[in-house]
Amino acid sequence: MNSSRKKNIYKLIGSGIFLLVFVSGMFYLANLVQENEALRETVVAYGYPGILIVSLISGFNLAVPIPAISFLPLFMESGLDFWTTIIVITIGVTIADTIAYFLGRFGFELTSGISEGKIFKKLASIHKQYPWGPPLLLFFFAALAPLPNEVLVIPMGFLGYRFIHIFPAVLLGNFIFNLLYSTGVITIFEFL
To answer: Which of these, 48, 58, 85, 148, has the minimum number of CB atoms within 10 Å of its CB?
Structure first.
């Protein structure tokens, strides 16, 4: 095995370990924040950086997806600006989606030498046949579904979709979702 190939393997292993540790930490923090009211209040006390962290964690939580925008009344009660809060939450969730995309790309890189199987040929044909369909679907999913975008982002990264096609769909979809959801949350909060 030549030294260039060894370096690539070590780089791949190092990246995989980093992603594994990061993902494990995100799941741990997501469960911690959801179960601990004092911790949630502490995050709110940190203002926008705290909101960014909460939205990053909630955007990456596949087990119990609770949108960070659900805490909007709490954020508003602490005197934070509505639009800035929406933008910060959108950025946090989009960062989580970006990490998920690169997890999918990592999986693609890891398995790229195994392209002879039927499954990989089928995935490649879907990618070739419908290049803009999945990013469009991702946009609508991110904008309307109260589910983690990682459900689509990770497979799209795995299929080799370019980040430049995924990022705008996720960013705009997350913004629209947060705007629609926040309008509903504020309306419900006003009635109570």
So the answer is: 48
37: amino acid identity, one letter: E
Q: Which amino acid is at 60?
A: F
14-72 pLDDT, tens digit per residue, is 766 766 676 566 556 656 655 667 766 665 678 899 889 888 888 876 655 678 887 77
* Interval 110-120: pLDDT, tens: 666 554 556 55
State how far the Cα of 132 lies from the Cα of 87, in Å rounded to an integer: 26
Judge whether 45 and 158 are in contact, CB under 8 Å.
no
Give the span between the Cα atoms of 92 and 187, in whole angstroms. 24
Length, in residues, of the chain: 192
Q: Distance (Å, rounded) from C-alpha 191 to C-alpha 8?
A: 58
Say if residues 27 and 61 touch (Cβ distance below 8 Å). Answer: yes
Is residue 52 within 8 A of residue 91, CB to CB? The reply is yes
Which contacts of 77-81 are long-range, i.e. CB under 8 A and separated by 24 or more positions?
78/44, 78/45, 78/47, 80/47, 80/48, 80/51
* 178: CB partners within 8 A, 6+ apart: 67, 69, 86, 89, 90, 93
